[in-house]
Amino acid sequence: MPVRELSDWFPSILNYEMTGTLFISVGITYMAKSRKSLIKPRSIAFTRQAGYCFYCNQPMWSNDLLEFASKYKITPGQAKHFQCTGEHLEVHQDGGSSKQNNIVAACLFCNQKRHRRKMPPPPEQYKELIDRRMAKGCWHSVRLN
Q: With 70 as the cut, is the pLDDT of residue 139 above it?
């Protein structure tokens, strides 16, 4: 079978080999839509929130994991959960922008837990859920404040 260029049908996919009705990847270039970087909005949110997670209100780190671990007397593995991430209040795939009013700083643990759910709850509802779990001591394995 000849190699078919799928770029006629799917401009972001190139160099697939057609074998009957099955496509076998030979090479792919640039699949995802370009997204704006969250570095600047995340940094601004981190400063605006005084370095605390939007959801669990625990301190986060943005630059130096080892310094953070030393400061709070935890292991680097434990400190990794408190890495600052940029969180879209309105999810990007649902049309949420990367503008500052839609970005908050959240620790890696809270951000990942929210988005691993089948149906991620809205941010305020998720924040209430975490508040209840934090009050019971059932959220982070380590409490920093």
A: yes
